[in-house]
Amino acid sequence: MKSYINNKKEEMLQLLGDLVNMESGTYDKQGVDQVGSFLKKMYNQLGFTVDVQNEERYGNHLVLKHINCNDEPKIIIVAHMDTVFPKGTTKKRPFSHDGKRAYGPGVIDMKGSHVSLLYAIKALTKVDENCLQNILIVFNSDEEIGSPSSRKLIERLAEGKQYALIMEPSRANGKLVSSRKGGGRFMLKITGKGAHSGIEPEKGISAIEELAHKITKLHQLTDYEEGINVNVGLIKGGTSLNTIAPHAEAQIEMRVKTMKQAEEVSQEIKEICSHPDVEGTKLELKGGITRPPMVKNEKAKCLVSLVKEIGEELGIIVDDVSTGGGSDGAFTSAQGVPTIDGLGPIGGNAHSDKEYLEINSLVERTLLLARIIQVLSKDSAS
C-alpha cells in the first residue's frame, strides 16, 4: 500500500490541480455540482454506487457506498465540496505549485482532502478491497456556511455508526482534531424613531444607541477560561449622518465547549435582547445554536489512541488538538459517534489568498488515512 501511494504522487498533484481549478464556492451551485459530478465518475470507476441528493439552492450532496457494502456500514466518512471563495477567484488565481507547496483557492480546505481520500480508496482497492464494505462516504456542498441543507442528512447517516472520520485539513505540524467548539448565530434587529439630529433630536429614539448597550452586554458574556466567546461581528444602522437612527441590526456569534454552555449562553443572549435599555426602542432576536460541540469523550479518546498507534506503526508522529473552529464532526459527535477530524493533508492560511498545501503531506496523510480505514473496518466487522 505504501509503495502504491508513493508511486502516485504526481497523479495526486495533477488531480489536486484539476479540482482546485473547478470553482466551487458555496453559493455557486453549478460549480459545486461540477466537482460532485467529477468525483462521482471517479468513484463509480472504483466500484462505488453514488446516490445524488438533489438540492435547489446549494450543490447536490453525494452518498457513496461500495457495491459490496454491508447493509449497515459502521464507518462514516464526511468531506465537503464547497469553498469560501466567490465565483471568479480561480480565474484570477489558478492552481500553482513550486515543488514544495501547492497554492490556489480551496487547495487545503478541502480539495487536498478529496485527493487523499480518493487515493486512499484506490490503494485499498488494490490491497484490501474487503475493508471497503464497511464504509459510507458523504460529500456535502454547504459546510462552509454551517451545513444548513446537509446537517440532517449527516445526522441521519451517522446514526448507529461506530466511527466517524472527518476530512478537514490537519492542524499545524499534522495534528488531528479531537474536539471542537460548538456555536450559535443570532440576528438582532432594533427599531427606534428617526428625527433630524440638529433641529429636533429630542423627537428621535436612537436604535444605534440601543445597539451600543447591547454590544457591551453581549461581549461581557465572553469567558476565555471557560472556553466561551460571544462576538458581535457585523453591525449596521441609521440612514444618514444628521438623522437619529431609526433602525440598527447586529449579527452575533457564540462559541462554546459544551452543550450545557450552549444552552446557558443562548438563554443569556435572549435575556439581554428581550428588553431595551433605551426607552421606546423595540427589539427582535432570531437564531440559536447552529453546531453542537465535538466532544472528546472516552470513546473518542480511545479512537485517538488507536490512530496514534497506527501512526506509530507507519513511522508518522500523530498528535491531536482542540480547536475553536467548527466542522461537520460536530454533528456526528452529537449522535454519540466517536469522531476524529483533521484527517486531510497539511497546509495553512485557509480561506485566504495565501492558502497552501504541503505537497509531501499528500503521500503521508493518504497512507495514514488508508491504514486507519483498514484497521477500523476490520475492528467494526469483528
TrEMBL record:
Pfam families per UniProt: M20_dimer, Peptidase_M20
Peptidase M20 dimerisation domain ranges (all copies): 179-280
Superkingdom of the source species: Bacteria
Protein's recorded name: M20 family metallopeptidase
